[in-house]
Amino acid sequence: MEKKPTYEELEQRIKELEREASKLKQAEEALQRITDEQSILLSTMPAMIFWIDKEGTFVRVNDTFAAALHKSADDIKGKSLFDLYPEDMARAYYTDNVKVMESGAPKRGIEECVETPTDTMWISTDKIPHRDEKGYIIGIIGFSENITARKQAEESLRESKEKLAGIIASVSDHMSVMDEEHNIVWANDVAKRLFGPDIIGKKCYSTYHRLNEVCQPCIVEKTFADGKVHEHETEVIGADGKKMIFWCKASVVALHEDGRPKLVVEISRDITIRKRTEKALRESMEKYRSIIEGIEELL
Fold first, then answer.
1. Which of 47, 61, 74, 205 could join 217 in a cystine, given CB atoms 3.0 to 4.6 angstroms apart?
2. Which parts of 124-258 fold into alpha helices (H)?
3. Residues 137-163 pLDDT 10s
4. Same domain, 177 and 271
C-alpha cells in the first residue's frame, strides 16, 4: 500500500510548484519582452522585412515593407504575391523564391526596379531560407533596402562622367595627371599624340622635355608643396624629337584629399603662334627703331 505524503511533504511540494510556476511566469514575461522588443525593432527598422511561405503567401511583414505598398502589415498578412503584384512580377518573385528554397542557400544583393502604388523605386534584396525547428525549409525571409537615391546618384555620376569625357575629348589642350612621385597616371589623347602613346607611368620631368634640357618638375613640386595654381611658359620637344619643337603655357592645379594635394592636373596650351608673332613683332620694332635712329643721325 502506497504511503500517503505527510502534511509537511505536501507543503514542501506546493512550495516547489509555486517556485516552478514563478520561474515559468518570469520566463514567459522575459519571452514576451523579447517578442515585444523584436516587434518594435522590426517595425522601426528602415529595411523592408518579409516572411513568405512555400506557397508564396506572406506570413508577416514589418511596417516599413507595408508602408512601401501603402498598406498596413495586417492587410498584407495572409495575402499572396499574386494578390499584391501584377501577374508577371508576382510570377518572377515566386520563381526566384522557389530557387532559394530548393538551393537552401541565401541569395544576396538582388537589385530590381519595383512599381509601387505611387511611384517607382529601386531596391536591393537579400533572401535567406526560413527553416522550422527541425531544420526543414518552410519559406523565405527577405530583407529589402530602398536604394533609389543611390541609383539616382550613380546615374547622375555616369551622366557627369560622360559629359566630362565629352568635354575632355573636345579640348585641344594637352592634359595630364601626376601623382606625388611625379608619375603620369592619366593623359588625354592630345598629350599622347604630342609626347607619345606610352607616357602613362613615366615621370613627367623625363617626358615633357624643354629644348636642349630635361624639364625639372618645378611647378609640379610647387603645387604639391602649397596646393596653389602655378603657371609657366616653356619651349618643349614633342615625341618625334627636334622635328617638333613648340612653345606651351602650362597651368598646374592640385586635387586635394583629406586637406592635402593628392594629385595634380597639368593643362598645357600650344602658344607657338603667339610666341612667333611676338618674336616677329619684336624684330620688326627693332628694325624700325634702327631705321629711325639712322634717319635721326642724318638730320
1. 205
2. 148-170, 189-195, 218-226
3. 999 999 998 898 888 888 888 888 788
4. yes
